[in-house]
Amino acid sequence: MLAVRIGHGTIIMLIRVPRAWEIPERETTAESVYRSRRELLTGAGFAGLSALLGNGLQAAGESPYPAKRNTKYILDRELTPEAVATGFNNFYEFTLDKQRVKDMVDGFKIDPWTVEVKGLVNNPKKYDFDDLIKRFPIEERLYRFRCVEAWSMAVPWTGFPISALIKEVDPKPNAKFMRLVTVNRPEQMPGIRSQSHYPWPYFEALRLDEAMNELALFVTGIYGKPLPKQNGAPIRLITPWKYGLKSIKSIVKIEFTAKRPPTLWNEVGASEYGWYSNVNPNRPHPRWSQAQEKVLPDMKIRPTLLYNGYEEYVASLYTGKEF
Ligand code: MTE
Q1: Is ligand 1 within 6 A of the CB of residue 91?
Q2: What are the structural domain ranges in the chain?
Q3: Given the DSSP bridges, would you call strands 125-128 and 114-119 parallel, antiparallel or unpaired?
């Protein structure tokens, strides 16, 4: 068991911490099956067939997890233990109590699940999640994850680049932004009623060039398994150079727009939560100096990095003044 204190009010976590490095065993069998099948298809010149089969696992009805890790994205710290990342959550539609989210999601229905993509696109779509996961090849990436509350984790996410979906729906030339919306089910998400002052459903947005950035992922899994409900099942956003509040969970609607769409936290507190919410150690939040962060689970203090350490990937998107 582990007890942790967090600066803004005292929160004690009691979480069973497994071994410090709880990386799920890489099941080489699954990976080699994945690779050999794909190599077989592409090597034989059946690229079209390969695309048709998505990640290559659909035909046999096998699980796509764990997906092959993309080793391009390396960490400068240990992975957060799985029990911590899946037991300490922000998902206000359920509760504000980070440690109770996981206990309140049982009644949340994620199957069937449809993601509607509409607005300024040439190919609007309604994806059934089971099709979506087969359509875009998924991979694992290790990213730092920094919350505006000044705690951070390092998480193995599984998902696919948002750019793959954007290419498929083919935005019109006047599409400049992407709006994302969470499901709105008060009967399954008790926090929607108890936090009725928030403008539900949760909504977020990215500039189209941000969404096209190679780091931006639609995430469907974590620690080599499907995403648990408390982490935003069945599909959420991850933009590792931004504060975690941008990473909207349980997405059902994606809309391409010409005008910049509002975002929930920026609407409820514009002086505290910028529309961009890029991780920036030089711009203090009124409650949390952003210069440092507490790394879960042991809350060791580290200096916060500009763009959460992803400057080489994203700095060219910005003038540096965005908030
Ligand atoms: N998405 C929805 N729909 N509702 C939320 O309350 N919280 C955000 C983000 N996405 C939130 C959300 C915040 S503030 C953070 S820090 C991350 O989810 C937390 O993700 P995690 O619980 O997987 O660590």
Answers
A1: yes
A2: 2-317
A3: antiparallel
